[in-house]
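ingest -> validate -> predict -> emit
validate: passed (alphabet ok, no gaps, 1115 aa)
predict: started
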Amino acid sequence: MTALQMLGFVNSLLFNDLVCNEDNSPDVGLVMMSNMLLQLTILYEEVLYTILHRLGKPDSRHVADPDELYAYIQKAFNMDPEEHQILLQRTKELERPIFCLKVTVKQATGILGKDVSGFSDPYCLLGIETKGHDSSTNSGSRQENKKRAKAVVKNLIPEDQTHRTQIISQTLNPVWDETFILEFDDIKNARFHLDMWDSDDEIESVRHKLGELSDLHGLRRIFKDARKDKGQDDFLGNVVLRLQDLHCRDDRWCNLEPRTETYPNRGHCHLQFLLIHKKRATMATKTYPSYTIHRHLLQQIISHEVLQHQAGSTSWDGQLSKHASTILYLHATQKDLSDFHQAMAQWLAYSKLYQILEFSSDCLLHQITSIEYQWVQGRLNPEQKKELTDSFQSLLTYGISLLQRYRIIFPLSSPKSTQRLRSLLRVLVQMCKMKAFRELCTLTCDLQEMVTKALQAGTAEWFQMKKQHLKPMVKTMEECGKALVSLLLEVNTDLQQCHKSWNKYFIKWATEEGDKLVLKGLDLDLELLLLISTVDHIDIPESTMRVDLFSIAYLELQELVSRYVKDQLSKIDSGMSQLTAESLFQLYLSLQELYAMKEFLCNSEGPLALTNFHQWFKEAIPKWLQKTYTIALERTQRAIQVDQLKPLGELNKHSTSTVDLSTCYAQMVKTWQQLNWPDPEEAFMIMVKFVEDMCKIAQTYCRLTKMRAEELSSNQHEEGEAANRLCVVVNNIEQLRMMILKLPSQLDWARLEQKAGDAIAPEQIQHTLHHQLQTTITFLNNEIRGVVQTLATKLDAGITRHIQELASCDSKDPEDCITPLMKFLECELRYLSGNLVQENFNSLLELLWNHTLNVLTGAAKQQAGNLKYFRKLHVALQSLELCFYGDGCGLPEDALHTAEFKALEKELELCSSTSRKLIQKYFSVRIQQQMEANPEKYGAVTIKAFYRHSEQKLRIDVLNAVNLIPLDSNGSSDPFIQLTLEPRHEFPEVMARTTQCIKNSLHPLFDEVFEFLVPPEKCQQDGACLLLTVFDYDTLGANDLEGEAFLPLCKVPGLKEDEEASNPSRVPQTRLPLTHPGTTGTEILKLLETRKGDKEAQAFVKLRRQRAKQAKESE
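emit:
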């Protein structure tokens, strides 16, 4: 429909009520159209007449050029140019109206006080002075004009054309608020005059004046009054204005001008002017009331404005164009329409057009505001009351119908829909709160109740419409299931929109923003704005209406859905197909989502129709679970078939099949979470089935992935590639193990156990679920160990071969001999480290480490006494330890330093040491034995020892021996002490010293001093000590051994320069328990004994064996 066609349609609707009102019966057909055209012509004539006889100075907000206004109304009325000219000429021939100035004398401030009391009794004389020619043509006329401005009204204007206000007694700020209508002929030659006078009451007595006398100034006034004539009033000031300088509607404060310069500042007077018409000669004025004419003119112009708006009717904000505002302003002013009747006309026009053109309802708020603040029921005649009542009822009914269809009328897809809905709700609320509405529409139902019923009905209609729209053409079980799912999707989407978007507008439709009547952008006159800003007694109660749209829609829809779904499910038998079961699962999820929205209900009394809806789907659960298992198993099998068992990347060391497997598990977990079965016992059985299926898939995956590795390896004969695939297999199974371990948290077993409560014993959950899981974990661990063992076995042979080759290595440097072994391990372990996850790599390292220790232990049992060979083995063990530790990236130290490692390390360290080094170790062991000896079993020796750096001498004071063992037949001994510095190879030039022999004493006192010339660095060597050997002198045979004592030289006082003892008397005594060799150091002696070609070693062993023999004999 074009804009012109729409305008014609709107005009027919607008004028239909005018025709019906005239004839009191609705005409139809040609009669109605003929009348409509006639009324349109009459209204057009009225507008032309208004423009033609325009009065007043144009306002800056309005259009001044009449041709522009003619052009505008020609478009607004869709008038043909020729017809426009005919009507314009006819209008010009009509009799001119009577021009009138409607003036309201509001008040005055700051006037002169002429009475003795300092106040005045002011009143005003006003009228219009009319001249026959322009008073500004020459200097003489200007002078006369000035004199006339000083003249008083009674001298210029005839008495019958002079108007007078009331007298306000004793004030300097009088308030009159009186309105007068003054006629004039020619606005260009007319002046408005107002004189203000102080009334002089002749009855006032001199005695009364003397009683009010307060100062000398008052006395002068009494004398002045005595000189003037009785009853002569005092001039207070005047106002003179040219009518052509006034706007059509004017409101101003004017200065009161003096006739002389005696008192130039005489105050101000507040005047309001309105240039109006009387006896307009138009047909409309003769036929209809001014209020009715203005309303239809308003409707005509607004409909044109809306239809011409570029963005469409719904975005029109109520702002009239400058031309439209000018015409309506002029017409209302010339017809002298009150603000209230203008507001009422605007309300009737806007509210009617809103129901036809659907523009923004915000435009109605201004009229609601105006009517509310000016409402007086007595201003309206019965016909106007009926019109206003009908408009309220019509708009309310229309608005309710829009709310009932809010899903269609205000779609969220439209950018401004929510704004339109909010505006409509605000208008309906404000309208129903108006005093006019409450007084006229007494039988109207409560707005909240009306909206609630409309929303309920609209929701039911929407559901039926969607149900019909989605009904399948072919009514199979599968298609019916899909249709149900689609319907539930629509319902859930609608409720979500209700909750998130629509509800806030209905629940809080009278927010602070809504309660504040929108004034911005609306053309309120100054008086109304002042009234609105100052009136505080207007009763617009805050809205208490709250409609919970979501609750209304939810309760209605869940009842309809429950009834419909149960009816449809009753037609599906237990032998449903898999496709039907899948559709039912989606339906179950949709119902679950719908039921979960009950949490958003404000008040829910009694159970919902959807309560226990899960029971409708019990027969479908086995098919759902089987479908879930089948899909996961098939996807896992397909993933392994295409898996090349190559790592995904440097960070992801497993292959592609684990990604698919993880997705399968995630989907099964999601299915469990989506199912969220309410019944705890049934939920437990479902969980058992889920875990069982997942464990089956895990075992199947392990079996298939190993088969896949064998298949790929059989096609490629490279040994390295086979090992690579085994690494990926291990990583895949490890990844699977981690997935299985996460199942309790992902499936939320704790919540299931808590939900089960007393229905299922915790022991049953532990025995069933955890046992299933642990069995699978054990299975996976065994699988991992088996594959890792296979990898380790492939490397064991290489490690054994390289260790065995150490014996045949001729290089003097042991590092060169173990280089092949280290290169072999570096190559293999680097690859394995890059292709195995850390945990599996550590397991492999542990297996290889234990194997390596076994091989080295076996190798150490060969070639006894071969120092070079054992050095190779020792260096190999040290290097292998560092290799397997890998700077903390390999095995931890506690895994490396096993008992086998410590024993082997000790053995290889001894076997790889030189004879002298072994001798040093022997003495270190004996020194340790000395420190741990039982308290003086064989007696003790007391000495004092200190070292002098300046002389590089070691001084030993042998003091005594005590508690010696009696070795002679007489029960005593003949003890003496031999002092030697050990080991002898470190002190070759130091001779042994001997004390004197003390006869028959077990507690001999020697008190002898010995000095040894030795450098300090020798005393710091490992095993360096002073050996004190106590013998029992035997004249006939060899001396018997009492015992040995070892003094470590590194602890002798004075050896360090800062500890040098300058005074030997201050050196503390040292008491050394005597010991026997026993088994201490036997291993070292045996090792030295194997070195047959080493004379020094053999001599040392011989001496120590002799000492051991002597010790044994003495015991």
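The CA atoms of residues 679 and 756 lie 8 Å apart.
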